Amino acid sequence: MNKKSIKDVNVKGKKCLVRVDFNVPMKDGVITDETRINGALPTIKYLINEGAKVILCSHMGKPHNVLTEGWGLNKKEKAKLEALPENERESAKAEMMAKAAKDKTKLSLKPVADKLAEKLGQKVTFATDVVGASADEAVKNVKDGEVVLLENTRFEAGEEKRDENLCKKLASYCDIYVNDAFGTAHRSHATTAAIVEYGFVKTAVCGFLIEKELSVMADSLEHPIRPFVAVLGGAKVSDKLNVISNLLEKCDTLIVGGGMAYTFLKAKGYEVGQSLVDNEKIDYCKEMIDKAEKLNKKLLLPIDAVCTKSFPDPIDAPVEIKTFGVDNIPADEMGLDIGEKTRELFADTLKNAKTIIWNGPMGVFENPILAKGTIAVAKALADADATTIIGGGDSAAAVTQLGFADKMTHISTGGGASLELFEGKKLPGIECLNDKN
User: Fold this and answer.
1) Given the residues 132, 325, 416, 424, the one annotated as active site
2) Is 51 marked active-site?
3) Which H or E run contains 227?
4) CA–CA distance, 377 with 371 (Å, rounded to integer)
């Protein structure tokens, strides 16, 4: 990794603006999964111990989808109002505004500040805005080894618009910019990249979380110990177009499962019943099958499928299942998991691998009846004598849910960022950081 980290600069007495990823799930004001907060702790504790003034910022959710006074009506709300008789519009608008204000409080980082203070065993000053009077006051008064958390950065319309004035104001809060939010490193927003790209902050380094993501994931992609096996699942081929192409060039074997496998099977001439097929991507799948052959790479697809007559509703509802060979799926059945023979085939391949990356479940893993394929792959990774990397998103959720998390070398904190890394893309939140000399 050729980017500077917090260990490469002197942080003592310096104001460090740290972009973290505190986009945690909440229910009724209570944080339901603390993984992202825990992921940021090593960087925060290091800065505290080194005597830095720590100013944290993060987004949470998508408040820009909510109606807010500052940004006017969103498209959906405008359409609703325009459909009403004129004499009803004002009261309807007031109602919408009240609901928006309520929704906005649900996306406040205040519960995160409280949880963080508990974990650090010290006070965390919470600013009730991002660059307003409360933030000004908190940053002005912060002392060495103290921590401030700014309010949800997406409460500022300029965050996603890369607003220069917002970047300039945030830059005035710091001597050093630290990015430790790998989950948003693929986005070029004000607090993830633009603050540095505009030249407002000269010293820009990564925290320990990004350092780990890069050293494990990027290095494994560029210099894998072979055999190198990549496992891709999930619903749609279109979500992973460039990932498939890029990984075929890097790995020795590409395993494809999940919903996306049926488009590949269709491209090979199989009838797949009611299974999910991305008809516009059949030709692309044919190209990838040809590419694997030309590059002398193995492309493994399911040989049997666990099928049902209809998709479970709700998703974890009991379903009747039957297993069919992929050359024999009835017209009225849909494949929702890989079958037993496929599970054995995939596990045998993974057993001999030395580097494995996995992104995307093998079936509808949220349903216990349709989770066996995902469990089999997770178990095969856990048992493998290999560097095992889980590329965020549903795969990370599955591995954690199924109890295999502690058996993996690395579970990425960023689904979208991991995918773009697997695609071979440059991530703005990392590219903007200072290079090591």
Assistant:
1) 416
2) no
3) none
4) 10
Q: Is 82 exposed, middle or buried (0-12, 13-18, 19+ CB in 10 A)?
A: exposed
Give, as one character, the DSSP assignment of residue 190.
I
Name all domains of the chain by residue range, CATH numbers in brackets: 6-61+107-211 (3.40.50.1260), 69-105 (no CATH), 218-423 (3.40.50.1260)
pLDDT, one tens digit per residue, over 263-289 is 999 999 999 999 999 999 999 999 999
Looking at 3, 14, 36, 281, which residue is catalytic?
36
- Which is nearest to 384 in space by CA: 418, 358, 417? 358
Give the CA-trace dihedral at 183, 187, 190, 191, to 10 degrees.
Answer: 20
pLDDT of residue 71: 54
Active site residue 36: yes
Instruction: Give the pLDDT score at 267.
Output: 97
pLDDT value for 98: 73
At 186, which amino acid appears? H
Residue 64 pLDDT? 63
Burial category of 38 from C-beta neighbours within 10 Å (exposed 0-12, middle 13-18, buried 19 and up)? exposed
Q: CA–CA separation, 236 vs 277, rounded Å? A: 8
236 is catalytic: yes
Answer yes or no: are the C-beta atoms of 259 and 239 closer than 8 Å.
no
Per-residue pLDDT, 244: 94
Distance CA 262, CA 307 (A): 12
Enter the DSSP assignment of 41. Answer: H
CA 350 to chain CA centroid, nearest Å: 24
* Residue 145 falls in the annotated catalytic set: no
Segments in the chain below pLDDT 50: none
| pLDDT score recorded for residue 74 | 67
Q: For residues 417 and 425, give the distance between their C-alpha atoms in angstroms, rounded to a whole number.
A: 9
pLDDT for 70 equals: 54
pTM of the model: 0.81
Q: Rounded to whole angstroms, how far apart are CA atoms 20 and 361? A: 27
The 3-state secondary structure of 325-378 reads ECCCCCCCCEEEEECHHHHHHHHHHHHCCCEEEEECCCCCCCCHHHCHHHHHHH
Which helix or strand (DSSP H or E) is residue 225 part of? none
d(CA 384, CA 378): 10
Residue 180 one-letter amino acid:
D
Residue in 233, 373, 393, 415 annotated catalytic: 393
Distance CA(24)–CA(14), nearest Å, equals: 28
342 in Cβ contact with 350 (< 8 Å): no
236, 291, 298, 309: the catalytic one is 236
